[in-house]
Amino acid sequence: MKKILVQAFCFSIIVSTCAIAAKNPCDIKPDSNAVVPIPKLDKESWASRHNDILKRIKQGNVDIIMVGDSITHFWEKDGKGVWDKYYANRNVVNMGISGDKTQNVIWRLEHGEVNNINPKLAILMIGTNNSKNNDYTSEQIADGVKAVVCQLRTRLPQTKILILAIFPRGSDEQRKDKTQDGKFNPQWDKNEKANKIVSKIADNKMIYYLDINKKFLNKKGVLTRDIMPDLLHPGDKGYMIWAQAMEPTIVKLMGEKK
User: Fold this and answer.
1) pLDDT in tens, the chain (258 residues)
2) CA–CA gap between residue 4 and residue 59 (Å, rounded)
3) How many domains does the chain have?
4) Reduced to 3 states, what is the DSSP secondary structure of residue 64?
5) Distance between CA 11 and CA 25 in Å, rounded?
């Protein structure tokens, strides 16, 4: 952790000279596990997924990385058709691991997942797994996300970062009742407050913030199961909405011509 604090201090100097208006992503309060690197090596599927990512990274040829939890991981499941259409030919590496919290991603970044690569863009979607129960406040979740961004900026200084607002989600009660859609609830609200804090670190030079959440909702602001069948993970339709909403920003940040 001391090493990260030193890196954070060094990076804070860079931020102060190039983006005075934006908050420093390395300016975090070490008051919760959300910012402390924690692995889940005792879980076989997690360790296996981490090792698979390491193997892919060693192959090189990485232009975009997508970092996150199961919402990102499941591009390979419910989102596969959309992934093949938008990302299969773009040298994109999926770095999502189901169940991850911010602290787990921090550990992965510290242990090889971005070693010896220089992607043009890192896309980040993380934080929803920190919002359950009362384990973390919105401020602590935001600090966890910022700590991940700090890691990325420190280890990949030439890589642009696109932070996505944590997606809307149903409450535990709404998710269990298959007849219910997702309506605004305390957990959703907690994530929204974290999003507002995180948005302030965007300098629109190397760190960008994108909130596409309204595109998942109907006119009444409800998250329906045809978009996210379990009110947490996008279905095929939800992944298409995600890809289409994100595409103009990816094209711009990658310097692509359409």
Assistant:
1) 445 544 554 444 344 334 446 899 999 999 999 999 999 999 999 999 999 999 999 999 999 999 999 999 999 999 999 999 999 999 999 999 999 999 999 999 999 999 999 999 999 999 999 999 999 999 999 999 999 999 999 999 999 999 999 999 999 999 999 999 999 999 999 999 999 999 999 999 999 999 999 999 999 999 999 999 999 999 999 999 999 999 999 999 999 986
2) 27
3) 1
4) strand
5) 9
Q: How far apart are CA 79 and CA 86, in angstroms?
A: 11
Q: Return the number of other C-beta atoms located less than 10 Å from residue 57's C-beta.
A: 19
For residue 16, give its domain range.
2-254
CATH number, position 51: 3.40.50.1110
42 CB contacts (<8 Å, ≥6 apart)?
Answer: none
Amino acid at 56: R
Q: How many CB atoms lie within 10 A of CB 172?
A: 13
